[in-house]
Amino acid sequence: xxxxxxxxxxxxxxxxxxxxxxxxxxxxxxxxxxxxxxxxxxxxxxxxxxxxxxxxxxxxxxxxxxxxxxxxxxxxxxxxxxxxxxxxxxxxxxxxxxxxxxxxxxxxxxxxxxxxxxxxxxxxxxxxxxxxxxxxxxxxxxxxxxxxxxxxxxxxxxxxxxxxxxxxxxxxxxxxxxxxxxxxxxxxxxxxxxxxxxxxxxxxxxxxxxxxxxxxxxxxxxxxxxxxxxxxxxxxxxxxxxxxxxxxxxxxxxxxxxxxxxxxxxxxxxxxxxxxxxxxxxxxxxxxxxxxxxxxxxxxxxxxxxxxxxxxxxxxxxxxxxxxxxxxxxxxxxxxxxxxxxxxxxxxxxxxxxxxxxxxxxxxxxxxxxxxxxxxxxxxxxxxxxxxxxxxxxxxxxxxxxxxxxxxxxxxxxxxxxxxxxxxxx
Amino acid sequence: xxxxxxxxxxxxxxxxxxxxxxxxxxxxxxxxxxxxxxxxxxxxxxxxxxxxxxxxxxxxxxxxxxxxxxxxxxxxxxxxxxxxxxxxxxxxxxxxxxxxxxxxxxxxxxxxxxxxxxxxxxxxxxxxxxxxxxxxxxxxxxxxxxxxxxxxxxxxxxxxxxxxxxxxxxxxxxxxxxxxxxxxxxxxxxxxxxxxxxxxxxxxxxxxxxxxxxxxxxxxxxxxxxxxxxxxxxxxxxxxxxxxxxxxxxxxxxxxxxxxxxxxxxxxxxxxxxxxxxxxxxxxxxxxxxxxxxxxxxxxxxxxxxxxxxxxxxxxxxxxxxxxxxxxxxxxxxxxxxxxxxxxxxxxxxxxxxxxxxxxxxxxxxxxxxxxxxxxxxxxxxxxxxxxxxxxxxxxxxxxxxxxxxxxxxxxxxxxxxxxxxxxxxxxxxxxx
Lengths: 426, 433
Known about the structure:
The complex is a heterodimer of chains A (426) and B (433). Chain A is mainly α and 426 residues long. In chain A, 69% of the residues lie in helices and 4% in strands. Chain A has helices spanning 2-10, 20-38, 65-88, 95-115, 124-150, 158-176, 179-203, 208-233, 235-238, 258-263, 267-285, 287-297, 299-304, 309-335, 347-357, 362-385, 391-406, and strands at 44-48, 61-64, 121-123, 246-248, 264-266. In chain A, strands 2-1-3 form a 3-stranded mixed β-sheet. In chain A, helix 16 (362-385) packs antiparallel against helix 17. Chain B has one domain. Helix content of chain B is 72%, strand content 0%. Chain B has helices spanning 2-16, 26-41, 45-65, 68-74, 81-103, 112-115, 117-141, 149-166, 173-200, 204-222, 260-277, 279-289, 291-296, 301-327, 339-349, 354-377, 383-397, 399-405, 417-432. In chain B, helix 3 (45-65) crosses helix 5 (81-103), helix 4 (68-74) runs antiparallel to helix 5 (81-103) and helix 7 packs across helix 16 (354-377).
């Protein structure tokens, strides 16, 4: 991703005042006034907090859609105006304004989109739980990207790692009859893809983006080929993996809304939370992470300090592959119970976007991936309650948001300086 | 070649000139961009041929390993090993012979013309691959990774298709406008990543990937509206394009080969001319070789990024025209098939040289056309084509690996960029002399 850095340096140095945020906020506020407020339906949008089967029940949240629309629109306009004044004074804007703006916008959008539906009532708990589930492979994928890019290797091959993980998990779990064997096989397969990435980009100095793109094609072809020969010939032996059950922690799982998210997950789901926390702590609080970041930011300096640059890169890229492999296992062991060709359907690329959106930070990537999961799940939920908004536009949203994010509207994203640059000892 | 030398001189001149904004990171960036160029443009044709051979052998091994008869005969391998070896050979060679007959020449056809029908199919499939491959390649030359050919093809096909079935115009003019609309559609989808890269530094890989998805959903939406559907139908398929909007079939109605192939040849020449004979092309290559030096030399890097992405998108848009007005004749959601992604491998295999892309496009067109035949005749899944294609590109990108596998003397092996730079400079000097 160093290309971005290259261009930042190349473009003519502009004025010190950055008008992107006020302009972006202004456009968003204008949209909110036109759509959420003026176009707000005179209905009540109902968000169900608990389902009938829940042990603890909370009252539903019922919001008058047009009133909420106006409140949100005015608040957004106020933030936009404040940011305009701040930038004119030459002061930087506190990042919490941006976060508040985003949250308000999402609330306004949700109320509006539910309000205009035929049956304006959705389950908030279901919406959020579904978002987390859909985000699990994305989170593993972007964590893999974090591990690779932080040491200076661009990982476009996340898609291939996910797909190979899904394939290996299906086959190994079917043959052994044990889903946990499948889980380890998935990590191993992801590592295998990573090994090729590491060898070609570190040893043979092949451009990392090229290796990544080609690896995705290779894995797609290979798994597709094997799926239509071996797997389809004897699917009972090779393609009927036992699933990983949800493990529900007593009592905690009954907490409304957050219970199912945190305490009623498959082992892959729990692993995801562990991975996010471990990688975050590892990256910012341990010697391992310090070395990783040093290698990714300034390999020459790291080398001078006695860190083996290429070895550090190699092992962390392998680790990244294993992490992505777990994400792949989600597809065949948790989500669907068979492997079908190209079943990851470009999620690896979305994970890549989440990584950049999350600014190469595990926690950031986690929330960015959640946003993508949320957008996907919202589309499903809205199609159930019957909405006039074409589903294609809802599907486009995360991609448009990502473009805005990388274009710097959501703040400056800076990749590790040496990402994409092979290191050759002078 | 002389223009290349000039570029090198410009680069080295820029490298020595003082520039306040170039900090310690600059040498690394320069090394990197030169490494990229070396990988895409460098290497010998021997390595390319060996890479193809090696990939085909590996593909054959994969076919043999998954063959049913091979696994049956393997059970008594130690009593009669020849059975398994024969079965393996027959499985692999049978698949490749079917592929050849589907891609080049079919001796079992009724007439001589029909015997060569597979070859015309290969060229038909190659047409969008070449056009989109050129789009990826020209962006590579300016140092940009255009992963967005897929979306650019879709937009090109959408624009061209809409003009083709909505407007009713006289012959000639209609086709011209269809082609133009396709170019504009693709160019628009290339312009967005280009301008964002130039103005904000947004990474083009991410933006083009996102633009691919937006294009897929956009065409999906359009095909759900009455303006794009057949009257009285709610299928996501457009009406058939007017006859006046179609690319004529150049070998008569029994072959699908259409005028788009000649457009692809013309585009190949055009891209070669732009890159090697025009000022714009020289600037693009300079920007790709070293943006810092180019800026020092007075070349507008931002303009270069926009121009090259518009051209790249436009070329991919022409691939969309070839699809919608040549092969398919209706607009569907799957109009771009996987041509946009295959185009990346085509550009890599062709090392981003226009004629290299042309022949790589024909080769991959042959794989794809033959793969369909292979799948029907021997039941070998067409995915094997993807495996062989990607292996070829991987091996070609790493000449030392191929040389090591075939035990070729590696005296010339260039491990450090510094040594390689010297080699290139010497080469350039030799060329100039």
